[in-house]
Amino acid sequence: DAGVIQSPRHEVTEMGQEVTLRCKPISGHDYLFWYRQTMMRGLELLIYFNNNVPIDDSGMPEDRFSAKMPNASFSTLKIQPSEPRDSAVYFCASRSGQDYEAFFGQGTRLTVV
Amino acid sequence: AQSVAQPEDQVNVAEGNPLTVKCTYSVSGNPYLFWYVQYPNRGLQFLLKYITGDNLVKGSYGFEAEFNKSQTSFHLKKPSALVSDSALYFCAVRDTDNAGNMLTFGGGTRLMVKP
């Protein structure tokens, strides 16, 4: 398996623009997590899904953030409109129901100017 | 609520010397504990986990960690450090009572191994 695949690896956008981050979890994994990493706040869980259903989105910072998982092999995290303070590295991770550890993608480095 | 503390922002060690990266946790139930490593511009890579059983767990690249319930600690160790071990290390916890299945991460410790 190729692991968790995220795209794009880097995104630079202007303030106010819509940004969509994409994630393909490991095949067969039931859980999908979106994390954000910044120097100030470290790794924060934004939202997670179980069997494509959002379970906990309490970490989503504002209504500007939304996440979907239309099927078991694809998820998106959307920011609309984007702001400079959204600049961070966004990670997607997945886990099977039988495993304890989650596996992370390479991340998307988002820069909002 | 669950939380993790990594008291050291950075640990410096000479190559060949033993290393320890500290982690303490807080959970309401029993913990599942994990260590991850992050190399520059890369995602987090799983190193090892404690679920139950033997308090000393062994993982990838010669790393091991010891679970100490009375001290609520899960320190990462390696008998002989390599320069290539230099990276950012994260401890994480999941409360077995946490139906939410969420991992909470510590702030990370940067390990610098000098030749």
What does this structure look like?
The complex is a heterodimer of chains A (113) and B (115). By secondary structure, chain A is mainly beta. Helices cover 0% and strands 55% of the residues of chain A. Chain A has no helices and eleven strands. Chain A has strands spanning 5-7, 10-13, 19-24, 31-38, 42-50, 53-56, 65-71, 74-79, 88-95, 103-104, 108-112. In chain A, strands 2, 4, 5, 6, 9, 10 and 11 form a seven-stranded mixed beta sheet that branches. Chain A is globular, with a radius of gyration of 13 Å. Chain B is an all-beta fold and 115 residues long. Chain B has a single domain, classed as Immunoglobulins (Immunoglobulin-like, Sandwich). In chain B, 0% of the residues lie in helices and 52% in strands. In chain B, strands 2, 5, 6, 10, 11 and 12 form a six-stranded mixed beta sheet that branches. The mean pLDDT of chain B is 93. The A-B interface holds A 4, 31, 33, 42-43, 45, 48, 50, 55-56, 91, 93, 95, 100-107, 109 and B 32, 34, 36, 41-46, 49, 51, 90, 94, 100-108.
Features:
heterodimer, A: 113 residues, mainly beta, seven-stranded mixed beta sheet, four-stranded antiparallel beta sheet, 11 strands, 0% helix, B: 115 residues, Immunoglobulin-like, six-stranded mixed beta sheet, globular
